[in-house]
Every structure is written in C-alpha cells, then in structure tokens.
Amino acid sequence: MATLDNAKDIITAAWNPSEEVLKNYTGAGIKGLCVSAGFDKAFNDCEANKSAKHSFSKIAAKSKGDFIKAILAFNFDWSSFAPDTIFKHLK
C-alpha cells in the first residue's frame, strides 16, 4: 500500500468511524480523533446543539459507549479524514 501514489486517498476513503472501529480506541483517543477531524467544532457550532445546550465537552464526558453513540448520531462528514496513526504505518 505504501508504494501507491494514492495510498492516502484510498485509506481516507476507507476509514469510517463506526461503532466497531471507535470501540477500539480509548475515550481520550476518540476525543483526539474528533478534535483532529473538526467534529468538536462542528458539533459545538450546530444551532440545534446550541439550543439544546449540548456541547462536545458534555458528550465527551459521557461513558465511552454513550460518547460513541452521540458521535454517530450527529451528522458529520468524515469522508476527508482518517487518523494520522494509520498513515504512520505506511512508512
């Protein structure tokens, strides 16, 4: 895979933050993914979340399972993101 010119594009297109994938991360790791992807900002900027007084810090403080459910329930476009740790394995 590392020898392909478009390896980053292939991996980014394939990575999907499903429940199965996210449960393999620690809570802090999931939070880091969300921050790196811009999810936290999008979640906080959402007018519906503002009105309901929901914030990223509040969902991040929930149990890991509830945190994952809240992430997956929010409409966020992850299509241009994959964790940096994946790309380190390409070297």
Structural features, described:
This protein is mainly alpha-helical. Helices cover 60% and strands 0% of the residues. It has 8 helices and no strands. It has helices at 7-14, 19-22, 27-37, 39-45, 47-51, 56-60, 64-73, 84-88. The longest helix has 11 residues, at 27-37. The radius of gyration is 14 Å and the shape is elongated. The N and C termini lie close together (10 Å).
Concise description?
It contains eight helices and no strands.
Task: Itemize the secondary structure elements and their pairings.
Elements: H1 7-14, H2 19-22, H3 27-37, H4 39-45, H5 47-51, H6 56-60, H7 64-73, H8 84-88
Proportion in helices: 55-70%
- Structural shape: elongated
Largest pleated sheet: none
Distance between the termini: 10 Å
Number of helices: 8
Oligomer: single chain
What does the radius of gyration come to?
14 Å
User: What is the strand tally?
Assistant: 0
Percentage of residues in strands: under 5%
Q: What is the residue-mean pLDDT, rounded to a whole number?
A: 91
What structural category do the secondary elements indicate?
Answer: mainly alpha
H and E order: HHHHHHHH
Low-confidence runs: none
